[in-house]
Structures are given as C-alpha cells and as structure tokens.
Automatic annotation (TrEMBL):
Descriptive protein name: EAL domain-containing protein
Listed InterPro entries: Biofilm_reg_signaling (IPR052155), EAL_dom (IPR001633), EAL_sf (IPR035919), GAF (IPR003018), GAF-like_dom_sf (IPR029016), GGDEF_dom (IPR000160), Nucleotide_cyclase (IPR029787), Rev_trsase/Diguanyl_cyclase (IPR043128)
Gene3D superfamilies noted in UniProt: 3.30.450.40, 3.30.70.270, EAL domain (3.20.20.450)
Top-level taxonomy: Bacteria, Pseudomonadati, Pseudomonadota, Gammaproteobacteria, Lysobacterales
Domain of life: Bacteria
SMART domains assigned: EAL, GAF, GGDEF
Amino acid sequence: MWLALARVVIGAHLVALRTLARAESLEKSERLQQALFEIADLAGSDLELADMLRRIHTVVAGLMYAANLYIVLYDDVRDSMRFLYFADQRDTYVAEPDRDIPVDEMPNSVTVALLRHGEPLQGPSAAIRERLGVPRDIQHGPDSEDWLGVPMRRDDRICGAIVVQSYDRPDVYGEEERALLAFVAQHILTALDRFHAREELERRVEERTQALQLSNRDLQAEIIERQRAERLQRALFRIAELSITSETLERFYTQVHDVVSDLLYARNFYIALLTDDGERLEFPYSIDERDAVREMRKLTSGLTEYVIARGRPLLADRKRIQALESQGLVRSRGSLAHCWLGVPLFRNESVVGVITVQSYSPAINFSVRDQELLTFVAHHISIGLARKQSQDRLVAAHAELEQRVESRTRELAQANAELLSQIGERLRVEQQLTHQATHDALTGLPNRSQLLDRLSHAIARAQSEPQRTFAVLFLDLDRFKLVNDSVGHSAGDELLIETGRRIVDAVRTGDTVARLGGDEYAILIEDIDGPQVAEELAQRVLRALGEPCWIAGREVFPSASLGIALWHPRYRTGAELLRDADAAMYRAKSSGRDRCAVFDEAMREEAVRILDLEADLRRAINGDGFVAFYQPIVRLDDQRVIGHEALLRWRHERRGLLTPSEFIGVGEDSGLIEEVDWILYRQVMDELARGGEGYISVNVSPRHFRSSDFADRLLRMIDQAGADPHRLRIEITEVALLDDVPRALRMLRTLRSHGVLAQLDDFGTGFSALSYLHRFPIECLKIDQSFVSGLVGDTQPESVAVVRAIQALAGTLGIHTIGEGVENEAQRATLRELGCTYGQGYLFGYPAERMRVTPLKLVVSG
C-alpha cells in the first residue's frame, strides 16, 4: 500500500515537473515571439539607426545575458567590415557605423576569425583564439570568461555577425543561447535590410521629388513663354487684320495702340513718320500724359531723329539720355521721360519712321525684352502700315478710276466702235480664264487637267493606229523641301519656274510638259520608235536640271528622280499611265536619286504581289494562319530555362511558314499589323493559362504605345484567359518609351501594378533613352545581338566595352540583362565573364511551337 502511494506521489510530482517545464518553454517562446515582433516594429519605425540598434539591444537583453553586445556588417566583395553597434562595460571602443575597416587591418581579431570560420563560436575568448590560431592582441579589448558569436547569413554568404560576452561569469551561454542568438541574428539582419531599404526608398523619393520640382518649374516657364508667344501671335494677326479692316489711317493707328498696350506699358505712345521729302517729321498719332499735342517739325537732334539716323532701336533711361546729351548726340524735346523706348519703322529696308513708348515714373521701366518685343511688332506694323497706305491710295485711285470710267462709259455709249472694243476685251478675258483653267498659275505650263486630256487623245490615237506609240515621264525634284525651308517659299517658286523652263528647253518641240503640283512635273512624248528614245530624253532632262543655278543669292545644284511609263494596250486611262510612271519615279528615288527608271513587269508583279499579300493577310486574320513560336531564354551558367520570347509566324497556305520580315512592311502600311499582334497576344494568354513555369515575353511596337487603352485592353485579355499576369513580360524599344514619355510612364506603371513587367529590347542601338531610363520601371535590359555577335572577332574590344557599360548601367539601376543572339559557346562564356546572367539565341534553341523547360546539355567551360 505504501509502495502504491509512493508511486502515485512520484507520478504526480513528475507530471507537475513536466507541466512546469512546458510552461517555462511556452513562456520562452512567447518572449522570443514578442522580441521578434519588437524587432520587426523597430525596423519599420522612423528611428535613426543608432537608436533602433540600441532598442534591439534592449530586446536581446530581455532574452539572455547581453550587457556586452556588438553588431558588425561584413562586405565580402571589398573584404571589409563596419561596427554598426558597440556596447561594452569594459571596452571603451566607440563604434563608427559609416567607417569601413579593411579586414587586413585586424589580423588578430576574434570577430574576423568568426567571419572567416562561418559557424557560431562559444566559450572563453582565450580558448576560442587558441582553437582558431588567433594571437592575443590587447588592441581588440580584454578577454572574456564566456564569448558567444553568431554569423549573419544572406543566402550562402556571410554578411555580418552579432556577439555577446561576459567578463566575470563563465558558462553563461549554452546551446540554447547559441540557437536563440542565431535565430535573433537573422531577424536583426532582416530588420537592417528593411531599414536600409527604407532609407534607399526615401532617397529615391527625394530624388524623384526634386526632379519633379525641376520639371514643374521648367513647365511653368514654358507655359509662361507659350502664353507670351500666343499673345504676341494674336497681336500680329490683329495688326494684319487691321491693315485690311480699318476704315481710315487714324482708326488704324488707334487700334494699333490698343494692340501694343496689351503687350507692354504704352500709356505714352506716338508714331512719328518722315514726310515724303524726308525733311520734316510728322506725328500722325500721339497719346501722352504730359505732351498732349506734337506738332510737325523739321528734323533736329531729338531722340526720334537719333533712332531714324541710326536705324536701330534705342532703349534709354534718364541716365543714358543725359549721357547722350552730354556727348552732343541728342537734345531732348518736350517733357523729360524717365525711360524712353523707340523702334524704327522700315519700308523696303529704309527707315520711314519711329514707334515710341515712354514712362515718366521711376516705377515703370522698359527692358531689353520689351525692346525685342516692340521691334518684332514694329516690323509687322510697318507691313500693316504700308498695306494700309497702299490700300488708301488704291481706294482713292479706284474712286478716281470710277469717275473716269463713268465719264468714259457715257462716251462709249455714244459710239458703236467702243462697244465692239468692249466685246473684244471680254473675249480676251474669257480666253485668259480658259488659259488659267488649263495651265499652272506659277510656271504657265499645262496643268494636270490639260495633260490628262492630251493623254486621252494619245491613247485614242494609239488604239486606232497600233504602230504609233508614246511614253509618259514623271519627274520629282530631289530635296526640294530643303530649299523651301532654308531660303523660303519665294525662292522655291523661283526654282520651280527655272525647272519648268529647263525641261521645256530639253524636250522636243511637240512634247507636252506639265506641272502637276508642288515639285512634280510630267512629260508626254509622242511618236517615238521605242523605249530608248524616252530614256535618252530622260537623261537629257536630268543633265539640264543638274546644271547649277542661282536662287535667292545662293548657288543651288538641283537634281530630280524620273520615272518612265511606256504605252501598252492594257492602259485605259491617262491616270493609269501617270500612276505607273509615278511608281517608277519612286523606284528611281529609292535607288539613289538623280536617275531615271522604266516601269516594267517586275514593278507590276511587285505591286500585284503586295496587293495579293495584303489580301492574304486580311484572310489570315479572320482564320488561324498566325501562330506563336517560342524561343527559350536561359540562365547562362547552367542553361536552365527561365522564360520564352513569343515570336510571330504566319503559316501561309501557299508559301509555307513566313517570318515577320516577309510581311511586316505590308502589315504596317495597311494598318493590319496591330490586329495580328493581338492574335499573338491571345495565343500567349491561352498558353499562360495552361500553367507551367517561367515567363513569356511579347513584343509591343511603338504603335501600340500610342494607344491610350493598350494597358487596359491587355489586362482584360489576361483576366478573360485566366492567365497569371506575373508570368507575362512585354518587350519594348527605346522609341516606344520616348515617343510620349508621360503616357509610357502611366502605361508601364499600370501594367507593373498588376504584375506585368517590362523589358527594354535591342538596348544599345538607340541614342536617347539613357537620359530617361532611370525614370521608367524597367525589369530587364536585352543587349542587342549586334553587340553579342561582336564579342568574338575583330570588333571584340568595342563590343566588350559596350556590353560592360550596359552591365554597369543595369547594376546601378538594380536590373538584370539578357544577351540576345547567342550563337556559340565563346559568346556565352564572354557574356558570363562580363556579368550577364541570362541569354537567348540559337545556341540554346530555335523558335518552336512548344516551349522547352529542361536545360540544354552543353559542355560549359570554366
């Protein structure tokens, strides 16, 4: 009975002990969990780094003995470390978190030995030194009775350590403390990463904010400048309108004053004009606060006469006026102005007057910008004034003419001979109108209407008399727009007239030379023996046009491209002949300009081929002719497939499988290529919806990025297919980014917020995206295959330098790179050495309808 009772008591005692142990274990777990929560909260707080680490020390001290604790970070690339935190009861060392200490400067440090060892160390510091072969060095602090150090790891790399130690008590730390400190160390590392990430984010936000402020300031300045330009443009239009609509010159001056007042301070304003004999100065318009009336005067040495004599604007304050007076150059007349601005008025490069504004108040001054503005306006006022004066003179002349016509009409009514003269004049006018309807107004040559009429007659004669043949030559001047843009349209008109004259001189007497419009001419040559006659005449015309000529004081060397269409019974109208001659002309222009080309069956077949291809393209869009092929993108070190690029193929019913290069031109010209792209995108979404690993990238042309709803449409397609947007990438070019920067930014951010990342394709071939690249959320740079192919051969140094620069840029932006067009092992090895992570090309696989997920079995060097 006692034995049974003892068993019961012992059993109850054991149960109590186990319960107590579980309670203690649970309490430790709760303390550890609470500590980790506190560390996470500290990492997300706004505390400074030193304050955050001090509070983390307090948290660790609540879990174990940690009166003496320090934290170091280790950089294995530079082989240096930094003491982020150092708290010690005996060691007086003060941590400098921003100072990098090379490991070579601390050969006898137990902390360095811990980082090299890579595993936790525990025990008396003397025993640890002896175990690791580290000599005693008093510079590294006193020895401790118990020392516990745990390395901090990121993946497989040692990136720091946390150490606690006791100077007066041995065996303070055991396996439980070691495991606990190792667990806490990783959370501290995570907290540090989050802290540094937050600091980096704040830095980037600050940089972006400053960039936006600069952009906003520039935008505000641009808006102000545009508003000013618009106001000036409205003023100029108003002046031009006034020169036509104002009833009198006095009304014109008043309204011009109103226009100038809208641009600058013009309360005191007058217009001075030289009389016809140039001896006196009159003031047809004057508004002034102090000098109410300005009488006509002989030319003296006033400020107005000074501007007329010099032919240049004058902006003078009181001090400048006094200086001019002291030099004897001017003598002020009337009330003294505080600031005076006068601008000459010109007519045919001669000064005819002055437009003046002035201020009597020190608070109002005119600037150089006001001078430039008034000078610009004065030029248009001169034009408007001349036009208005001419109009007034014309009105007076018309009035006089009407009187004379009335008198003459009464005389003509009395004589039948005069009536016959009028009838003859009418016939002449009708003939002139008829001539104008069939001739070009600038050159006097036949126009398109008359040419088509003569072509109809030539076709009719050739159909009735098969032995008669003719040809049409279509001529277009090369780089004519350059003449217009450089020396003006009037000079361009001179060149057009000279071109027509030279063509007429070069052709035969019975040939028809017509100007079709712009810089296009056509020549109809009839009764020819064969195509050689047309070609010889074309060469003669080109030689005549190639002779230099003087246009607007400049020597110009014109040239032209010329197309020839020979008569063939298949033609029904002259427009068809002109069309084919035009096509031949474009063939000549594309072949290098300053030459001629004859329209032949090859051109016709090419036109028919393009027409048929466009029709096939439309039918294929409605059918299932387009299919996505997938080319693998692999990791260069082990050839593991990480994704695929979807490439468009057309399974043509007659020509077999076509690549985009064989039909992309027709698709872009007809606008059908966008529909084809969406067919490809739909197939990719269906492929993604079937599951699998790795991403699929699709090419997006700049044409899509100009569409404001592209991102929304793509996301709707992803949702409808049930695909994972995180497995989709879009490949864009630099042109798409820079075509409309704000729209591109919005589109990329919208897609990225839903998981669709962007890759920059053919990187390095553009010339402007580097200045914008940091603004765009780009996930990857694809190094253009032209640089990859150059990694082997004569261009290796240049290509290696370019790829290295791209890698440095990508590293700075925190993005990876893909080498395109990898075709041999040497290119792959060089890309790996330069730091490129991924590759794509025939070395890893050709485009196929099925995606490959296994790595290639290649012999990898190095």
